[in-house]
Amino acid sequence: MPICIPGDLPAQDVLSDENIFVMDAERALAQEIRPLEVGILNLMPNKIETEVQLLRLLSNTPLQINVDLIRIDSKAPKNTPEAHMRNFYHQFDEVAGKKYDGLIVTGAPLAKLAYEDVKYWDRMTEIMDWARRHVTSTLFLCWAAHAALYHFYGINRRLRQQKLFGVFNHQVEREHDPLMRGFDPVFFAPHSRYGEIPLADYRSVEELEVLASSAEAGAYAAASKDKRVVFVTGHPEYDPDTLAQEYFRDQKAGLNTAVPANYFPANDPSQCPLVTWRSHGSLLFTNWLNYYVYQATPYNLSDIA
């Protein structure tokens, strides 16, 4: 079954070229099923690129999904046309009365700011609290994962001197948790962040379970025991060349960013990257939609509490 998105959203052409089934709203109305309602709070500056990455992963499921793109404020993003934001994004206040089966909150390039110094932190905390009442399961990615851990459990990150940057191997810690179903015992995932939280801090919270971790990258996936809040500290959605683009952008800006680890063959940026994470990234989103959302959400969304 498809994801349902506006017919003229730029992601539709990209996904159609990849033979991914997408459906516009008019056709979706003819389907005699109750589709899942999923919101994406997109905090990344390049909205369109992130939309494509997430919609690609959400599409790999037999479930029909209606997607709302949500913005956190009305400020014009640097790398996305304002017309795109007006045409395809909802202000949070426009959807605050709605309930969702699932919500995805993306990362954000706010690595070195204290949370309280983020210009939209008050709105961010409002949305996080709203999600606990209005969403069956919320998936927080990268910066948003650390921000949610801080807000809900008082766990603060510390900043690394050098960015954790590259593709790292991880070990499944709870193989029978539905989110890890089908995972190999060892798998790879990209990271690009300065923030880190020691594994011991996760384990100190009775309500949390660490599902997968890495000796180099720390906790990768964790969840509350009721499955309503999920934290993923890496970027399973990244395209093959996303880390390369970031590396070359940093080099052009004169930043002393190291070559991303375990990414370029022979650590040589002139070579095409090795892609080792896409199957597990897709499986992570499929498992989240199936086991944490679809099989847990009520048929009547108004029953979410």
UniProtKB/TrEMBL annotation:
Residues of the site described as Important for acyl-CoA specificity: A111
Binding site for substrate: K163, S192, R249
GO terms (BP aspect): L-methionine biosynthetic process from homoserine via O-succinyl-L-homoserine and cystathionine
Domain of life: Bacteria
EC number, as in UniProt: 2.3.1.46
Cellular component annotations (GO), alphabetically ordered: cytoplasm
Keyword terms of this UniProt record: Acyltransferase, Amino-acid biosynthesis, Cytoplasm, Methionine biosynthesis, Transferase
One Gene Ontology term of the molecular function aspect: homoserine O-acetyltransferase activity
Catalyzed reaction equations: L-homoserine + succinyl-CoA = O-succinyl-L-homoserine + CoA
Main location: cytoplasm
Similarity section: Belongs to the MetA family.
Cited PANTHER family: HOMOSERINE O-SUCCINYLTRANSFERASE
Functional description taken from the UniProt entry: Transfers a succinyl group from succinyl-CoA to L-homoserine, forming succinyl-L-homoserine.
Designated name of the protein: Homoserine O-succinyltransferase
Organism for this UniProt entry: Saliniradius amylolyticus
